[in-house]
Write a structure and sequence with these properties.
Mean pLDDT is 81; it is low at 115-122 and 220-226. It is built from four helices and nine strands; from the N terminus they run αβββαβββββααβ. Strands 4-9-5-6 form a four-stranded antiparallel beta sheet. The protein has a three-stranded antiparallel beta sheet with strand order 1-2-3, with no helix packed on it. The protein has a two-stranded antiparallel ribbon with strand order 7-8. 15% of the residues are buried. The chain is an alpha+beta fold. The chain is rod-shaped and about 160 Å long.
């Protein structure tokens, strides 16, 4: 018997389709828009990451600060304090109001020492051994002014180096030595000179650049108010 003729049925199948010039332009526009949208999204993601990183860094910094506080047990704060100008020792101390702790110390300048003394009433200490010199007693204080000059300079160029306002029994550090004021201005002045001479014997830098000229004492002695 004869074979039947082929039967045709409409369908759809994946085949190559070659784009027209107009379609290629449309595809190019679509690609450019997608690339732009992707770049914008990446920038937004980066900003969001940076925001979260900043938050995380802040948290980590807080954690580290807390750990350090717990480890050390303290932190630095601006606290109410008083400046104590101690002309006896030639020092300025910063003292906390709440605990009385000395938190800072420095030497007083010549200007800071000056207002406590009246140099017009001062004179050189008699260093002779004739015994004719006054002695401070009880609450009396004696003000001393130590004058020095640059090595090799004339005595007329001497300048105020240190001042002390002492009562018997007090100890001050002079030229590296601890000197106790017994109440006798002559003994104190000699001790200051000996301390400076010791520096010269040791070829100290201070002694090489500084020469002691004289030690003045202010009289009458100052009696402390009760």
């Amino acid at each position: 018997p004869a074979r039947p003729a082929p039967r045709t049925v409409s369908t759809r199948y994946s085949c190559k389709y070659y784009f027209s010039d107009e379609e290629r332009l449309e595809i190019s526009d679509e690609m450019a828009n997608a690339a732009h949208d992707n770049a914008v999204a990446e920038d937004e993601l980066k900003q969001i990451k940076n925001q979260f990183k900043a938050r995380m860094d802040g948290c980590e910094a807080t954690v580290r600060a807390c750990v350090e506080k717990l480890r050390s047990g303290y932190e630095m704060r601006m606290m109410p304090c008083k400046q104590v100008f101690d002309v006896r020792l030639g020092l300025m101390r910063v003292v906390r109001d709440d605990t009385g702790e000395v938190v800072f110390t420095r030497h007083l300048s010549d200007e800071e020492l000056q207002y406590e003394f009246d140099l017009d009433n001062a004179h050189g200490v008699d260093l002779s051994d004739n015994g004719n010199h006054e002695r401070a007693e009880g609450g009396e204080r004696v003000a001393f002014a130590v004058f020095a000059k640059n090595a090799g300079a004339d005595d007329s160029e001497a300048k105020l180096f240190r001042k002390y306002n002492l009562k018997p029994g007090e100890i001050v550090r002079v030229f590296g030595d601890d000197i106790e004021f017994s109440g006798d201005p002559q003994e104190f002045a000699k001790a200051v000179i000996e301390a400076h001479n010791d520096l010269e014997d040791q070829n100290s830098i201070t002694a090489l650049h500084l020469e002691l000229v004289r030690v003045d004492v202010m009289q009458p002695f100052i009696t402390e108010e009760k």
